[in-house]
Design a protein that fits this description.
Strand order of the largest sheet: 22-23-1-24
Bound molecules: uridine-diphosphate-N-acetylglucosamine
Shape: globular
Distance between the termini: 17 Å
Radius of gyration: 22 Å
Structural class: alpha/beta
Strand content: 25-35%
Number of helices: 13
């Protein structure tokens, strides 16, 4: 078990170069299956979810090599189209391999990851999209079998702009005969990143970033190189950390437009935000004003992943902040822990009201999910005294060197492991 030990109350100062995007890396890693040669990816973050994707690729017969932030994937020897349950269950987004395998092998056999962190996460839209392209899919007790079938282009109408379903549809459409039109597509920057990557393989795709993506089937090149864009949710995390703790930090190597809704609310809350090219500077006096309503919505709306992070930043804001969560049904799992740290939060259905308190105090809490765990760490950084976040590996699924990056900004935070130092009073390693 990971244990995050935090001594709160420090202001944050300095510069952080934002890590590569987790949610862009995962579908792009799956898309490497389409290349009958070697892909070089740069700025690939070191994360548990990325490791899981690399293991899936190796299992399927790819040769994988990592050098620093570069990953080389040679998919010339793909020998299997089956992903065992033990690998599938390591991350929800392994379902994206379905479209990639269909594209590469014409068939796929995988299981569904069981139980889930944020509420029901059905894949009906993924299946509908792939069936529209001619995939023959059978579902039996958590198993999905896509039997060999020739894919042909078609018009896919997504009733909700699911990110994963859009990605699966794009990947399968690459191998379909003729043109595929995806209407109601997700518009997230990760969709644009996937389009850009597929174009580097020679694909003819356009429309990413709008609600209509058009894909023409193509024969992939044998070589490609691609740089993963910055992680907008990680950037938002650091911005929220600074907002809650007070201080001044610059985030570099990122596109501030990709998390402008988060910056907007931080600005409303009293932070100064200066954006220039790929850099954004956030200054905060520590005590903020309440904001809201913060309503989560598909991009370009406010990201559901940033909701727990902004909530942590606003725990000490003057007044009452209002949140409405529209994407996932269990996205307030951080709330009991934030209350334990002194936060005053009232949840009713989709709504959460956060009444700002004078001060937060340290406590021992349990991470519930990736962003929920991060929000507890952020609250601990802004709290008086020591906080311990016990974590079954959620946070390292999405944040690279989270403790040392925050330490370089002046935070006192250490990632330790069970058995290393149990007491609340921690020793600096
Ligand atoms: C992606 C992100 C995740 C983010 C989410 C929403 C990755 C790896 N993960 O997840 O961090 O929180 O987008 O921005 O990129 N839905 C259905 N049927 C489906 C698919 C989805 O009903 O077939 C529903 C889901 O239950 C959920 C909503 O659509 O309520 C959004 O899901 P989706 O956009 O698909 O999110 P993910 O791709 O899973």
């Amino acid at each position: 078990m990971d244990i995050w030990r935090i001594r709160g109350g420090k202001r944050l100062e300095g510069e952080y170069r934002v890590q590569g995007s987790k949610n862009a890396s995962l579908p792009i890693l799956a898309a490497c299956l389409l290349c009958p040669g070697t892909v070089e990816l740069r700025r690939v973050p070191r994360l548990r979810d990325v490791d899981a994707a690399l293991e899936i690729l190796e299992h399927l017969g790819c040769r994988v090599r990592r050098e620093g932030d570069r990953v080389y994937i040679d998919a010339s020897g793909v020998s299997s189209c089956e992903i065992p349950h033990a690998l599938m269950e390591r991350m929800r987004s392994s379902v994206i391999f379905m479209g990639a395998l269909l594209s590469r092998c014409g068939e796929a056999h995988l299981s569904l990851p069981g139980g889930c962190q944020l509420g029901k996460r059905p894949i009906d839209l993924h299946l509908m999209a792939l069936r529209t392209l001619g995939a023959q899919i059978e579902e039996t007790e958590g198993e999905i079998r896509c039997r060999p079938a020739a894919l042909r282009g078609g018009t896919i109408l997504l009733p909700f702009p699911s990110v994963g379903a859009t990605e699966n549809a794009m990947l399968a459409a690459c191998a379909a005969r003729g043109e595929t039109v995806i209407r109601g597509a997700a518009r997230e920057p990760e969709i644009t990143a996937l389009q850009d990557f597929l174009c580097s393989l020679g694909a003819r795709i356009r429309g990413a970033g709008t609600d209509t993506v058009r894909v023409l089937g193509f024969t992939p090149r044998r070589r490609a190189r691609f740089v993963i864009p910055a992680d907008r949710i990680t950037a938002a995390t650091f911005a929220c950390a600074c907002a809650g703790c007070g201080g001044k930090i610059s985030l570099t190597g990122c596109d501030p437009r990709h998390f402008s809704t988060v910056l907007y609310f931080l600005n409303q809350a009293g932070c100064a935000i200066i954006q220039k090219n790929d850099r954004v500077t956030v200054s905060s006096a520590g005590r903020l004003r309440a904001v809201g309503p913060v309503i989560t919505a598909p991009y370009p709306g406010f990201p559901t992943d940033a909701q727990p992070l902004l909530m942590a930043a606003l725990l000490r804001a003057e007044g009452e902040s209002l949140f409405t969560e529209n994407i996932f049904e269990c996205r307030y799992r951080q709330v009991p822990a934030l209350r334990k740290l002194g936060g005053s939060i009232c949840v009713s259905g989709r709504e959460a009201r956060v009444r700002g308190v004078e001060r937060l105090h340290g406590a021992a809490v349990d991470a519930t999910d990736l962003r929920g765990g991060a929000s507890m760490i952020l609250a601990g950084l802004a709290a008086e005294g020591e906080t311990l976040v016990r974590d079954l590996g959620h946070v390292t699924r999405g944040y690279e060197n989270f403790d040392s990056c925050l330490r370089s900004l002046g935070a006192e935070l250490y990632l330790t492991h069970e058995g290393e130092n149990h007491g609340l009073s921690f020793q600096v390693p």
